[in-house]
Every structure is written in structure tokens, then in C-alpha cells.
Amino acid sequence: MWFMQIRRDFHWQSVFITIYLLVLVIVMAVGVWAGAHEQLERLGNSHFFDYITPAIAMSFIIPDFMFKLFWHRDPVEMDDSLRTRPVPQRSWSQFILLSQLLSGLTWMMPSCYIVALCLFGVGWQAALLSFVAVLLVSMVNTLVVCCWRRAPGNRYTLPIVFGYLLYLFLTGVYVVISTAIVLVPYLKVSRKATAETPVEAHVLQVVAILLGFIVLLLVALWLLYTYFNRLRNYNENRDGGGHVHQWGKVSLMSIEWVSVLRSKRMRTSVLVIAVVFLLNGYLQQMPEVFNETGFNSMLLLAIAFPSVILGQWCMGIEANYCHGIWSRPWPIETILRNKYYFFVILNAIMTMLLLPSVFLQGMSIFTLMANFIGASGFYVLLMLPTCLFSSRMDLFSSAFFNYQGGNKRLNIYSIVILLPLAIYFASYYMLPSWVADIIMASLGIAGFLLHRWFIGWLSRIWVRRRYSIMERWMTE
Amino acid sequence: MELILDNLKKQYGDKVALDIPQLTIESGQLVGLVGNNGAGKTTMLRLILDLIEATEGCVLSDRQDVAKSSEWKSYTGSFIDGRFLVDFYTPEEYFALIARLYGISDSDLNERLAGFSQLMHDEILGTKKYLRDFSQGNRQKVGIIGAMLIQPKVLLLDEPFNYLDPSSQIVVARMIHQLNQEHGVTVVISSHNLNFVADISTRILLLEKGRLIKDLPNIEGSAIAEINEYFSSEA
Fold first, then answer.
1. Which domains are delineated in chain B?
2. Do the Cβ atoms of B88 and A323 come within 8 Å?
């Protein structure tokens, strides 16, 4: 049944994204090897990498765990249809173990590790055993996350926390001591002497270290499986209330920010983008970077991107209550206009957050203001036409690597996002800064002057196409 | 406000979901729509609300085509399904939003909501929960209240008794009847609950596979016997 579900939920998009990520890893690894292949070959010949593979496997633990903590969404508890049938708990636990072993999430890190093994000339024994070790590390992390998600309350999550810290401590100590035991002679004695040591002795040392590491991991896995098997959880609705936060008086305007703030997916997307691009905006203003290019290449994005991210799903939120909108005196033109003003407010907030750069990093206030006007008047106006083909957004799902709501027309229209960026880069690269400022400000002012007419025209198109749009939202 | 369905047809590919040559719902009538699953009840309500496009024909509300005019929205209250609710709002916020749309003041809103206290049963207001966290029954209540709150001249409800406990069903039926009798509201409700429909409706329309099979005046429940006989023969 699990395999059938995977087959029926299969998307080529996931395959392409996985291949893309793997290609990125390969490119990075090849880049490292190309830059330092002589030193790496020398180290490879002296079995250096064989000795440090446990340490490399160890270094993956924390990033891999964090990744799984955010991204692991597979069910860990039986749903009601299974729970009320004679399915033993042990069978379910075994199923979880097997399904997680076959899960793409568990194999992601080991797959990247294979690439590294191929490029750094590790002996086949070390390669095989260290691959198994990395797979077990990944599996332990997956099972920790499964236990965490299944644990009903602090009484059951605290043992997981302490157990995991103990596991990190013990494996860390083992790896450090065992690696030091073999590496210290390597460092103290000359390389010639080390090179004269028989290959068999190298191999035995490496195999012994890795086998010990694997045994530790298997013990950890067994303990986790036993704990998981004993956990009991019920599918109770924990969101019973009491977490409501008021965001001002209810109005047709306030619904714009309330929908973003109360939608886990929208909120996370906007916050992450805002932080990332804000930091980039400051980084690009640093003298070392700014003097190279002559302009801040991230400024427009730092101001506009949070609203652009929301704008690509224009009406994606409203799709969830579209019948409530259309059956009431709630004009589409009002919705689009409020959305536009909300995006301007967002851009203003980002601009205010960039204001310290004017005093601390010497950013021109005119450049900042010109780009705010350009972003607000022109850039976000270009996002509103997505209301004609955006998909219904699932508001309460996770934001990380969530492609729900994407569609081909949106992907093609994303070319339009590049237009203001192209104008920005071309203006600031080829023209004096003050001229580029005038261009950006002029585009923005033109956008402001035309926005009512543009939104009116767009809403009339939406109303003409309403049946096909609402029908698509109903079936999504 | 009368509703006229003029040569109304909705087709999905080869399948005819609704085909009504002529139907007039007079102002002040309380019409019960009954029929088996797939009869076309919800499709008919969606066409009246201009939520889907008619393959042929049109719906006139107060002699204006609902597809070409928006005037009907100001006096029509309706609730069909979850897509009428704003899931990230609390019930208070949802009702306040409806009040904004219809120009109802805060004091009027509170006064009108007080009239629904028996239906709400202290389970709706003051709970500090978003609509998405409510049970189906309470969401149904919020939707029905949202439709009636605006004191409509036309009220359209799709299976309003679904998910409701028996007490709430009686309260809703009573409220619909009162709205129709005291304020002359034109009401169209679809339901599988024949007893309630027969109790309160002045006219019963029986749909089967998109077609209007029977159009029965229901004076003091006179149509129930014929309706029961029809469904018994279909079983």
C-alpha cells in the first residue's frame, strides 16, 4: 500500500530537483578537486582520506539532523483507518524502519558522500564501510526525528534530547580517539616512514575504526527502534484554541496581512526571503564588494522580493474562499487594489530596514528612495496579472521545498520578474548612478499614476474569466 | 424578489448536470429542493449564485441576469460549502468582515448576532479559535449565520441541516421558517431531510439526474406523502 501511494504521488518534478541538487554537489566536488587535485592525489596515496572518513561521516550528523527536522513529513503514527484494525504496533514500527531506510531523505546524504568518495581516492574497503557508516548516521537521524514527532509531550521528548546528546558525545569521542591513534604516528613520523608501512596494515586500521563506528551506530539504531516501538500517540486535535492573535480591526485591507501572518506557509516564505535579501543588501553595500561593481546589485531585490514572492501567488490565498467572495458585494478590483497597497507597505518596511545602511555604509538616500518608488510603483504592479493563472495555495502546509501551487504558466510568467531586474542592472551598470536613480523613480511614478487604470483593466479581465478560474480552484 | 430560471442547462462533457426549461420561484416562497445524490441540487444553487457558468440559458434575480449584474449580491445571503468561509479568521472576525461588506454597524452586528445565540450555544463566539479548527457542525452554523446575518431578501442554503445536532436542526428550520413568514424572504434550501423540508417549505421541487421531475405545492405538509412514495419506488 505504501509503495502504491508513492507510485501514485510520483512527480517528475521531484526527480529533476533531486538530480539538479546532485549535479550541484558533483560540480562543487569537481571544482574542489580541480583546484587542489595535486595535493589531494598526494594525500590519497598516503591513505590520509581513509583515516579521516569516520570524521567526515561525523561532520554530517548535525546538518543532516537539522535538515530532517525541518523537512521530514512522512507519517509516524498510524492513521485512524489502520489503528482501528488488527495491525500490531510492532508491524507498524518495522514498516517505519523499512520505509525510512528506503526514503529519499535518508539516502540524500549518503548519495552526496559517494561523490566525495569517488573524487578523493579512498580505498575500496574504507569506501564501502564508510558509506555504510554514513547511511547508518542518516538512518539514526531519521529515526530520532520520527521519535521526536511521535513523542506525546515533554516527558517523552526529553529522553530523546538527552539520548541524542549522549550519542553525539560517545560517537564524537570514539571518532576523535580512534582517528588520533592512527593519525598521530602519521603526523609525527615522516611521510616516507608512513609510506613504507604495509598497505595491509593501513587497511586493517581503517576497517577496525569503521567497524567500531558502525557497531556504535547499530546500537543507537536498536535503542531508537525500541523507544519508537514503545511510544504511543493519539491523533488528537491539539490546535484546540487559545493561540489567536489579533492584528487590528477587521477590514478589507487588514485581511491582506492577516492572511499572511496566520498562514504558516506564507509567513515563513516572506520572513525567510526578507532576512536573506536584507542581509545581502547590506553585504553588497560593503566597500570591498561595492567598489568592484560600482552599485549595490541586491538593493532592488532587498526592497521588493518579499512582495514579489507574495505577488506570484496573487489571489492564491483568496482562492480558498472564492465562493464567499463572488457571492458577496466584494469587488475583485478592491481586492487587487488592496493587495497592491499591501505590497507597497511591505516594500516600505524593507526600505526602513535598509535605512541604517545610509548612515553606516554610505548608501545614497536618493538611490534607496528611487528604488523604493520603482519597486512599489512598477515592480509589484507587474506581479498582479498572476491573479489570472495562479493556483489555490494550501495555506497551512510547510513552506520548505513545498511546490504546491506552482504551475507552468506561473513559471513562464516568472520571466516578467526579470524585466525590472534587467532594467535595474543595465541602468546602474552602464549609466551614472543619478541617471539610474531617475529611471527607477520614473518607472515607479508612472506605475503609481497608472495603477488604478491598470488594476481596473485587470479586474475586468478576471471577471470575464471568472468561471474557468474558479472551476480550476475548485478542482485543485 | 423572484428568481427565474430560463432555459437553464449545465453540461459537463456528455453529462447533463442540470436541465430546467422554465422555473419561476415567486417572491416570498420557501422552496425545498430534494433529490438523490447527483440530482443537480448543488449545481442549481451554484448557477443561481453565478459560481459556475451555464451551458445554456440564464438565471434572473429580480429580473436581472445574475451573470451580468452584481446587484443581486447586496440582498442575497447564501452558504453552500467551506469555500464560503475564511479559515484563518475567528467567527467574530468572519462576521465582522461580512458586516463591513454589507455596511452593517458594529452595534447592529452585535444585536443581530444576539438573535442567533440559541443556535451558537456558546460554542462559536469567544472560543479564540480559527474557523479551520472548528468541527464540521460548528462551521456549518457559522456559514448559516453568515448568510442570515445580512437580513437577505433571498436566502440560498445547500443542505443546511448537515452535520447539525437534532436541536440545532430544529432551531435552523425554525429560523428559516420565521425569516420567510415574518419578512417575506425568498428561500431555496436543498436537503436530504424530507421531514424538515416538508415541515417548513411552501413548495417542493424534486430533481432527478438534472431534471425537474415534480413541482409540488406543499400546503401543511401535503407533498410529503408523494415525495416519500417517489423515493420508496426509487429504492
1. 1-75+152-235 (3.40.50.300), 78-151 (no CATH)
2. no
